[in-house]
Specification:
heterodimer, A: alpha/beta, Fumarate Reductase Iron-sulfur Protein, Chain B, domain 2, FAD/NAD(P)-binding domain, 3 domains, five-stranded parallel β-sheet, 37% helix, globular, B: alpha/beta, TIM Barrel, Alpha-Beta Plaits, four-stranded antiparallel β-sheet, 13 helices, 31% helix, 21% strand, binds flavin-adenine dinucleotide, binds flavin mononucleotide, binds iron/sulfur cluster
Chain lengths: 458, 416
């Protein structure tokens, strides 16, 4: 085949309809009714399930009482990226999953959407609920590596406490995966840019297109600043390591999604029939995106079964409802095609003994090779630490998965004055976990470094 | 951020939110928790010769899914000894010097006994005294509480006994179980009180168990009338506060109490002249933590309105309350339904048809019958907009801004 078999181009109208927000915002009236439904539980379980421990009943009561600024202040004081989290958090498994209404046979309070209501309100009226404090004595100078959720959270908390923060990011726009990967029907790059702008207004200096490594090195930054926060996220997607993976039409999910976030989406064409390899949340995001871009068929290939898939159940259900097909117990062994990919040669698997991850290991079934025809392959089989960058940092301790080792209560690494958090520490979780890490690190930088400076100045 | 500092007759507190005398202020443990949560002050549970309380003490009025819209109790004053209470008052005052701590007193009507209690209370370092002339049950049968508050002469007399020895500000807590609250306020003022606080609870029976025929709360097959409070009493309290604020016969600072559970309730009391507010039922319902939303909400509203201190708006609505005879008879509003918001429940229609002035008709629109205001018939009573379940769906639209044609002006022109 000479030409690639591409899906038909969507009209702008189709485009809009397919990419509309998955959880549209509540109207003012809806938010009021929803907020008044909250029981205002004491020691509410939702707080415990929020990794940043926002005082949820309090902010909801403030919404119920018409105090949206106060609600936003409550949210942002624990979660500086409250607006992002309101959009992208898997609330089904976090706060909303813990709501006592679930046990009462009623729909849980829509905490995510209420949170969004409060933050959108102060954004729209350009009101800053927690302005940066003035601090002359005892202000620390802090460098933050990576303008992802972890780095931005750390920067915002430090700036509010009056410290001078410079954030370095290798990319053109700040925001990290939140800006370059997260499903567009949850949060748009436009929104993330707005959130970043609000953080810059706190006095945070963001230096884009500066990749830390050689020059400047982390050692340089440690010399220049009182403390450094490390929030580089993870490295590239693990490669398939099978023949044919360099064919045209084959890409890592992160690259595919990155293009979607940084190009005029209308220009992006997908194959008619798309095979997605892997069944984590990134794979599902890529599959749902391919479908929205017009692919007629999207097939997710996974070497284990639904029971072992790393994706959230609600993401899987969503994909299924959108017409995405799942094939369990298949693994590609070779990608076929001359210039463009035309298919995947696969083997069937069966589940064997449990491996180190505690999941049953998939074992190939002999003689089960078969071909799945497709016009595009997107793979997402895991992301690893950016070992290349981390290994430039002398004395930095990492575990056997390449994750940076920290003291949980302070987020200090093995290198003095170097703190870390987010995906580089937890191996890849959610935005909200990165935000919590950044906040904890900021608070400990404030007490350990800022505080000691204050003392020495006194 | 606005400054929430409050001042009642010289008693300062970091914010206007005080806990009213009641179960939440029964002990040092509780008040410490309350101050830690952010309350600005507390009036200790009324101290006097300790009493014995009954078991089964409260009942409530629930409306729909809303619990404790109204709350009723048959509890008396403290059942702890005077010594225990006052020792803890002294301790809390030492621990929280910037918070207002007030001792509430209810003592037998003897001058020496009052003198003795006043001295003991002030020795604790408390910031002021509140005389409980309001409790409507139990204590009144013993010649205390509302049996004092209901007789202006007694109120004045006991207040003046207290003032003979008191060194700190004296607040007289008024009972609403009286025809005209201004008489009680004047009596307190004439007795030398530095402030009044109101309202205490209202005589009530919240309901009857239809199987046993005994009202709630039942104590071994019998009940007694109790004291009513909670959100349901706020309108009564607001009126009484406004009456005193507007009364030239009693120019005295006011501590507003009754049904306060939201920040806007507090704003309303302050707009009607209160210097601070006290809360009991809402703290019993949700715990001390509600003060977070009270402070935040009040502060946001003040910020939005450009008010920097409570004095910037205190009393601002007092003059907006006037005699009916001063209202403009030529002012005219009519109802207007926003059809885009209307869900066609027809509640407005039936309310006007049966309960008001037959000014809503059903008209055919897009194949269904929907309510429409007969603008020439509408008298502008507000009923439809009050029953409408959808926010901002029925608006009252001004037709005539008025020409100052009041009933009083008509009378003086001989036209009434
Ligand atoms: C496809 C996809 C979908 C996701 N969907 C969700 C979701 O719906 N909800 C959710 O909560 N989470 C989701 N996540 C996870 C979430 O995006 C991450 O957990 C989160 O972004 C991690 O934040 P971080 O700050 O640790 O790292 P990142 O977001 O990866 O940010 C790291 C930043 O550091 C910069 N950087 C890296 N190295 C250097 C260097 N040497 N010098 C300078 N800058 C550097 C990078 O350019 C980047 O901007 C998703 C992730 C993916 C991949
Ligand atoms: C259970 C209970 C006990 C009370 N005890 C006292 C008391 O000892 N002394 C007093 O002055 N008022 C007492 N009150 C009245 C309250 O202080 C307050 O005036 C009244 O409840 C109205 O306020 P609220 O609507 O916020 O509850 C009591 C109220 C309740 C509900
Ligand atoms: S609240 Fe319940 S447990 Fe507590 S004293 Fe009253 S009846 Fe007993």
């Amino acid at each position: 085949m000479k030409r690639r078999n591409l899906a038909v181009r969507l009209t702008p109208k189709e485009w809009k309809a397919r990419w509309k927000e998955i959880h549209p915002p509540l109207t003012a009236a809806e938010a009021l009714v929803e907020a008044n439904r909250c029981l205002y539980c004491y020691e509410a379980p939702c707080i415990g399930e929020c990794p940043t421990h926002i005082d949820i009943p309090s902010f909801i009561r403030k919404i119920a009482l018409g105090d949206l600024r106060g609600a936003a202040r409550t949210i942002l004081s624990e979660n500086p990226l409250g607006g992002s989290c309101a959009r992208v958090c898997p609330t089904e498994t976090l706060c909303e999953g813990a709501c006592v209404y679930n046990r009462w046979g009623r729909e849980p309070i829509r905490i995510g959407l209420l949170q969004r209501r409060a933050i959108d309100h102060v954004f729209d009226e350009r009101y800053e609920p927690i302005p940066a404090q003035e601090r002359e004595d005892g202000a620390a100078r802090v460098a933050v590596i990576g303008a992802g959720p972890a780095g931005l959270s750390c920067a915002a908390v430090l700036a509010r406490l009056g410290h001078a923060v410079t954030v370095y990011d290798g990319r053109k726009s700040a925001g990290g995966l939140n800006r370059h990967a997260i499903a567009l029907y949850k949060a748009t790059p436009k929104y993330i840019d707005r959130e970043v702008a609000a953080i810059r207004k706190l006095g945070v200096n963001i230096r884009r297109e500066v990749k830390v490594g050689r020059k400047p090195s982390v050692a340089d930054l440690l010399e220049k600043y009182d403390a450094v926060f490390l929030g580089p996220g993870l490295g590239e997607e693990t490669r398939l390591n099978i023949p044919g993976e360099n064919l045209k039409g084959v890409s890592a999910a992160l690259d595919f999604l990155d293009e979607l976030h940084n190009r005029e989406v209308e220009k992006i064409r997908v194959g008619k029939r798309v095979a997605v390899i892997g069944c984590g949340n990134t794979a599902i995001d890529a599959a749902r995106a391919a479908k929205r871009l017009g692919a007629e068929e999207v097939i997710v290939l996974y070497r284990r079964t639904r029971g072992e898939m790393p994706a959230y159940n609600h993401e899987y259900e969503g994909a299924l409802a959108e017409g995405i097909e799942f094939r369990w117990l298949v693994a590609p062994v070779r990608l076929l095609g001359r210039a463009f990919v035309t298919g995947a040669r696969c083997v069937s698997m069966k589940l064997g003994a449990r491996d180190r991850s505690g999941r049953p290991r998939p074992v190939p079934v002999r003689g089960s090779e078969h071909t799945i025809a497709c016009d595009q392959v997107i793979y997402s089989i895991g992301q690893r630490s950016d070992i290349r960058f981390l290994s430039t940092i002398e004395g930095l301790k990492t575990d056997r998965h390449g994750r940076v080792v920290v003291k949980g209560e302070t987020m200090e690494t093995s290198v003095p004055r170097l703190f870390a958090g987010g995906d580089c520490v937890n191996g890849g979780k959610e935005v909200v976990n990165a935000v919590q890490d950044g906040k904890v690190a900021a608070r400990s930088i404030h007490t350990l470094i800022g505080g000691s400076k204050e003392a020495s100045h006194a | 951020m606005p400054d929430l500092t409050a001042d009642l007759a010289g008693i300062r507190s970091p914010n206007p939110f005080w806990l009213a005398s009641g179960p939440p202020t029964n002990s040092e443990y509780q008040i410490a928790r309350a101050f830690d949560a952010g309350w600005g002050g507390a009036v200790w549970k009324t101290v006097g010769e300790p009493i014995v309380n009954v078991s089964s003490r409260y009942s409530s009025l629930d409306i729909g899914t809303r619990r404790m819209m109204g709350f009723n109790n048959i509890e008396l004053i403290t059942d702890r000894t005077v010594e225990d209470n006052l020792r803890e008052v002294a301790s809390i005052k030492r621990r929280y010097p910037d918070h207002a701590v007030i001792v509430s007193l209810m003592v037998e009507p003897k001058r020496e006994t009052w003198h003795e209690f006043v001295k003991m209370s002030e020795d604790t370092g408390a910031d002021g005294l509140e005389l409980n002339f309001g409790c409507p049950h139990g204590m009144s049968e013993r010649g205390m509480g509302s049996s004092v508050g209901q007789v202006p002469e007694y109120t004045k007399m006991i207040t003046s006994w207290v003032k003979e020895v008191a060194r700190t500000p004296v607040i007289v807590k008024l009972t609403p179980n009286i025809t005209d609250i201004t008489f009680a306020a004047r009596a307190a003022y004439e007795g030398g009180a530095d402030a009044v606080s109101l309202i205490n609870t209202i005589n009530s029976i919240t309901g009857i168990d239809l199987d046993t025929f005994v009202p709630r709360p039942a104590v071994a097959g019998k009940s007694s009338h109790g004291g009513y409070c909670g959100p349901a009493v706020k309108p009564i309290a607001l009126h009484m506060v406004s009456a005193i604020a507007a009364d030239e016969g009693a120019p005295i600072p006011i501590s507003g109490i009754g049904g306060i559970e939201r920040w806007d309730d507090a704003a309303e009391f302050i707009l009607l002249g209160a210097s601070n507010v006290q809360v009991c039922t809402a703290a019993m319902h949700y715990g001390f933590r509600i003060v977070e939303e009270l402070r935040s909400g009040l502060s946001t509203w003040m910020e939005e309105k450009g008010f920097e201190t409570l004095d910037d708006f205190r009393g601002r609505s007092v003059n907006a309350v006037t005699d009916w005879g001063n209202l403009d008879l030529s002012y005219k509003i009519v109802a207007s339904i926003d059809w885009k918001k209307c869900i066609n429940c027809k509640l407005c229609y039936i309310a006007c048809e049966d309960g008001a002035h037959q000014s809503i008709e059903l008209v055919r629109r897009r194949g269904e019958m929907i309510p429409s205001i007969k603008q020439d018939d509408c008298v502008g009573c507000n009923l439809c907009s009050l029953v409408c379940p959808v926010d901002d769906c029925i608006h009252m639209v001004e037709r005539d801004p008025g020409r100052g044609d009041t009933w009083k002006s008509r009378v003086s022109a001989g036209k009434a």
